[in-house]
Write a structure and sequence with these properties.
The protein is of the alpha+beta class. The protein is 23% helix and 26% strand. The protein has one domain: Translation Initiation Factor IF3, CATH 3.30.110. The protein has 2 helices and 6 strands; from the N terminus they run βαβαββββ.
């Protein structure tokens, strides 16, 4: 099992996004499908902000980052809608195209 990667110290600001994924009104299952599609081909180090109104998002997004190896940066403060930040990792594990909550199998 991969260790949780939360790289944002409590006293630092969340970086501005390179990509914003709007998951307003989506359940986390659909949100992860959209997130996977939006980040496909993005380089490591890309900062992604995910707008997520599903109440499960504060648990599901860090868990997905933990599973894949991306860096979960935490909630984005002072937005009108709930948003969460992550940074794409070079060594992230790929996930299934139609089921991004499962690792891809070789």
């Amino acid at each position: 099992m991969r260790p949780m990667r939360q790289t944002r110290p409590m006293n630092r600001e969340i970086p501005s996004p390179d990509i914003t994924v709007d998951g307003t009104g989506l359940l986390c299952v659909t949100l992860l499908l959209r997130l996977r599609k939006e980040i496909d081909g993005a380089p490591p180090g890309t900062v992604v902000h995910v707008i997520a109104t599903d109440p499960a998002a504060p648990l599901d997004l860090p868990a997905w980052c933990h599973m894949t190896g991306h860096h979960y940066l935490g909630p984005v403060p002072s937005g009108e809608q709930p948003a969460f930040a992550l940074r794409l990792a070079a060594d992230a594990l790929p996930t299934r195209a139609g089921a991004p909550w499962h690792p891809a199998t070789p």
